[in-house]
Amino acid sequence: MLCVVARWVFSGVLSGCAGESYRLSPDQDEALLFHKRTAGTAFDAVFAAGHEIVAVYATDPARWPKVTTTLHRARERGIPIRIVGKRDLEAISEEVRGQICLSVGFGYIFPKSFLQSVAVCINVHGTLLPKYAGRTLNWIIECGEQESGVTVHLVDEGIDTGPILLQRSFPLSPFETGRSLARKTQEFEPALVVEALEIYGRHGAAAARPQQLDGVTRLPDRIPEHSHLDPRRPLIELYDQIRAADPDHYPAYFEIAGERVCVRLWRPDKPADEADLI
């Protein structure tokens, strides 16, 4: 999990949280990026687009080692780094006052005081909202979706419920796994982050549209029991549930004589470029 304080170099007119327009001076375009996944590609894309990252806040890399790559790149660029915990979000509210925040999969809920302190907080969510809020990547596979995507939205006091600034989708293979979907999502994110920042730089919060949340049922976080198969169902009906399960840590299984029997899927003729697919 990583939080990067950044300076986004916007051209032209930028709108604030309430939609008012103002032209940024060199001292008015500071922002934050919060991250929990491997942020290297998004981090590099932001730099390539001409934005200046001025500080990095990260949760403990000993617990979330995937942030190490981005921390290393930040150190290479001489960017200050601070390790933070959940309780620190209240404490750093004054440090980030008036800044623009970009959250790329940050694992903590931003407290109200924090959101009231910053100019705006923009979140990059690795699924299509509002249907797949929260940690739902494997549910996309189990539900048999033919596409997934990335949503960039403004952060409000809910969880993944804020107005959508930008959303794009990409097709899914019927042989997709949790790992392949995570990889494709991470590869898809950087360009979308840059485009969303450009949109916000031109139009501000006025460019975001409210989410249609009526009738949306929030899916639960995955637990090992979600890998439990009902052997009375036809195999073809279980296919998506099997490939949605983590084959190493929480493989799909059913029980015989009180013991678990695990199920793995593979294709003997799988193309060489589909290493993390079935």
How many separate domains? 2
* Global mean pLDDT: 84
CA radius of gyration is: 20 Å
Task: Compute the number of helices.
Answer: 7
Please identify, by name, the CATH architecture of the largest domain. Answer: 3-Layer(aba) Sandwich
Strand order, largest beta sheet: 6-5-1-4-7-8-9-10
CATH class of the largest domain: Alpha Beta
Q: What class do helices, strands and sheet pairing give?
A: alpha/beta
Give a verbal description of the structure.
The protein is of the alpha/beta class and 278 residues long. The protein folds into two domains: 206 residues, Formyl transferase, N-terminal domain (Rossmann fold), CATH 3.40.50; 40 residues, no CATH class. Helix content is 25%, strand content 23%. The chain is built from seven helices and twelve strands. The strands form three sheets. Strands 6-5-1-4-7-8-9-10 form an eight-stranded mixed sheet, covered by helices on one side. Strands 2-3 form a two-stranded antiparallel ribbon. It has a two-stranded antiparallel ribbon with strand order 11-12. α1 runs parallel beside α6. The longest helix has 26 residues. The chain is globular, with a radius of gyration of 20 Å. About 10% of the residues have low confidence.
